[in-house]
Write a structure and sequence with these properties.
The chain has 479 residues and is of the alpha/beta class. It is built from 16 helices and 20 strands. α4 packs across α5 and α10 runs antiparallel to α11.
C-alpha cells in the first residue's frame, strides 16, 4: 500500500479543523498544531464552575446544505435552533439589529430622524450635482455615501472607530463591504413620500442559527474526535512553532516545542489557518526582511472579555446587544443562556461584555478588578447594578480582529504573492486570509483548502480561487 500523503495543519479553529477533516476523509494523514490548550480557536467553549461559556457567545449561522449538514452529522440531535435576536443601543434606545431603517427613523428622537433624512438627501443631491465618479476608498466615505453624515456617525462611525482603534478616514471601504449591511434609506424615504414600494419595511431579514447543547466548541471537539479515529492523524496542542524549513520554494519540515520536547515533522503539504504574521515569521528567516516587514504592517485588534454571573434566571431575551452610543466603553453585551438554557443553573445567568484593545495597552494591562469597575459603568446604563452580580471572571484574546487600514489591500496582496511562490503552502480561513467572517465561512474555506490539496492544485491557484470567493461570498457580490 502506498504511503499516505502527510499534511501539517496549523491552527485548530474552524478553518484548520475544516481542512483537516476534509483531508482525513480524502485519505491523507494530518497533523494539527495549535499554540492554545483548547480546540476551536476564538470559537471555543469552556466550563468554569457551574457555567458553560463561549469565548464570547458564538452561534453557527445557517447558510447552505453542505456545511450545515456536516455540523448536524457531527453533533447529532444535541443542538437547538434559535431565531437570532440581536439588538442595538442607539441614542439611548433599544433597536433591532441588523439596523431596521424604519425603526431607527421612527423610534429615535424625531428631530434626529429629520436630520438623518436631510443629511442623506443632501449627500445624494451633492453627488448628483458634482457628477463625480470617484472611487470610494475609505470606510467613512462608504458610510457617508450610504447613510449621510448623521446616521453614519451615530450608528457606524463612532462604534467602528472604538472597535478598530483608528479613524474611519484611515479604514478601508473593504471593511464596510464585509461588515455592514447597506440598508436602503432611499427606498424608505421614497415610500414615506408615496413614491416607492409600499411593502418595503426597512430591510430587516430574519436569521436562524444552530447552537450545540454544550457550547459552540462541541462542533470542534466532535470534528477532532472523527479525525483522530485514524491513528495516522495527530494533534499537538500547547505547542510552540520554532520554524518551518523550506528548500527550492517548497516547505518540507516543521520544528515545534511541546513542553520540554523539540519535535521535527516532515510533510508534503502545509495548510495554515493562523495569522499571516506568524506564518511569515516561521517560514522566512530573519534575514528575509521583505516578507516579515510586509506581514508586520497587517495589524490586529485584541480583545478582553468579562463574564458576569447575575442572580436571576435571565436578564433579557436577546443574544447580543451592540453598544453604539459614545458613552459606552465596551463594544458588545451578550447573554449565553439565551443560546443554551443549560449553560447556567436555575436562578443564575451569565452575561459577557467585550472590549477591543491592543496588546499591552491600558485596557489589556488592566487588573481584573479595574476592568470590572469599568464594566459597571456600562452595566448601570443597562439597568444592571452591582448587587445583582454574584461573581465575575475575565479572558484575554490575541489577534482577533484584522484591522483594514487604507494600505492593507496592497500589503496583503504583496504578501500573498510571496506565499504563493511556495507551491505546497495554503493559507486559509479568517486569520489565514485576513478576513472578518463567521464560523460557517471559516469551516467552508478550510474544507475548500483541503479539496485543493487533495486535487494537488498548487497554492497560486488556491489564492486566485479565494480572491473570487471573498468577493462573491463575503462582500455581497453573490449571483
Amino acid at each position: 500500500m502506498a504511503e499516505k500523503k502527510r499534511v501539517i495543519v496549523l491552527g485548530a479553529g474552524p478553518a484548520g479543523l475544516g481542512a483537516a477533516y476534509q483531508l482525513m476523509r480524502g485519505g491523507y494523514a494530518v497533523t494539527i498544531i495549535d499554540r492554545a490548550h483548547h480546540l476551536g480557536g476564538a470559537s471555543a467553549s469552556f466550563k468554569i464552575k457551574d457555567y458553560i461559556v463561549d469565548y464570547g457567545p458564538h452561534a453557527f449561522h445557517i447558510k447552505d446544505g453542505k456545511i450545515d449538514n456536516l455540523v448536524k452529522e457531527l453533533i447529532g440531535n444535541d443542538y437547538v435552533m434559535v431565531k437570532r435576536k440581536s439588538r442595538l443601543m442607539l441614542d439611548g434606545k433599544d433597536l433591532s439589529y441588523p439596523l431596521n431603517t424604519k425603526e431607527a427613523l421612527f423610534k429615535i428622537n424625531p428631530f434626529l430622524s429629520l436630520k438623518i433624512m436631510r443629511d442623506y438627501l443632501w449627500i445624494k443631491i451633492k453627488r448628483l450635482l458634482e457628477n463625480k465618479d470617484d472611487q470610494i476608498k475609505t470606510f467613512e466615505e462608504w458610510g457617508l455615501d450610504a447613510f449621510g453624515h448623521t446616521l453614519y456617525r451615530l450608528a457606524f462611525g463612532n462604534y467602528s472607530e472604538r472597535m478598530w482603534g483608528v479613524s474611519g478616514k484611515k479604514l478601508s471601504a473593504r471593511l464596510a463591504q464585509q461588515k455592514l449591511l447597506k440598508l436602503n434609506l432611499r427606498k424608505l424615504i421614497l415610500k414615506m413620500l408615496g413614491l416607492g414600494d409600499p411593502t418595503f419595511e426597512g430591510g430587516v431579514v430574519t436569521y436562524y442559527d444552530m447552537y450545540p447543547r454544550f457550547g459552540i466548541g462541541t462542533i470542534f471537539d466532535k470534528m477532532t474526535e472523527s479525525i483522530l479515529k485514524d491513528n495516522s492523524n495527530m494533534l499537538y496542542l500547547n505547542s510552540e512553532i520554532i520554524k518551518i524549513d523550506a528548500d527550492n520554494l517548497e516547505a518540507k519540515a516543521i520544528h515545534l516545542r511541546q513542553s520540554q520536547d523539540i519535535k521535527t515533522l516532515t510533510f508534503d503539504y502545509l495548510v495554515s489557518s493562523i495569522p499571516l504574521k506568524y506564518l511569515t515569521e516561521y517560514l522566512f528567516s530573519p534575514q528575509e526582511m521583505m516578507p516579515r516587514q510586509i506581514a508586520n504592517k497587517l495589524k490586529y485588534r485584541d480583545l478582553r472579555i468579562i463574564y458576569l454571573v447575575l442572580d436571576k434566571d435571565y436578564y433579557s431575551d436577546m443574544h447580543w446587544m451592540y453598544l453604539l452610543d459614545t458613552h459606552f466603553r465596551f463594544n458588545r453585551f451578550s447573554e449565553q443562556k439565551n443560546l443554551n438554557k443549560e449553560s447556567s443553573p436555575l436562578g443564575k445567568t451569565v452575561v459577557s461584555m467585550d472590549i477591543a484593545c491592543n496588546y499591552n495597552d491600558e485596557i489589556w494591562n488592566m487588573r481584573d478588578d479595574e476592568l470590572f469597575e469599568l464594566a459597571l459603568n456600562d452595566l448601570n446604563r443597562l439597568g444592571i447594578k452591582r448587587n445583582y452580580i454574584i461573581e465575575y471572571f475575565t479572558l484575554k484574546l490575541r489577534d482577533i480582529y484584522p484591522v483594514y487600514d487604507i494600505d492593507f489591500e496592497k500589503n496583503l496582496k504583496e504578501l500573498i504573492n510571496i506565499l504563493a511562490t511556495y507551491h505546497n503552502v495554503y493559507s486559509t480561513g479568517r486569520q489565514g486570509l485576513f478576513l472578518n467572517n463567521d464560523i460557517h465561512d471559516s469551516m467552508e474555506m478550510g474544507m475548500l483548502a483541503g479539496e485543493f490539496v487533495l486535487n494537488q492544485k498548487e497554492s497560486r491557484q488556491w489564492y486566485a480561487h479565494m480572491d473570487k470567493y471573498i468577493k462573491e461570498r463575503l462582500e455581497g457580490n453573490i449571483k
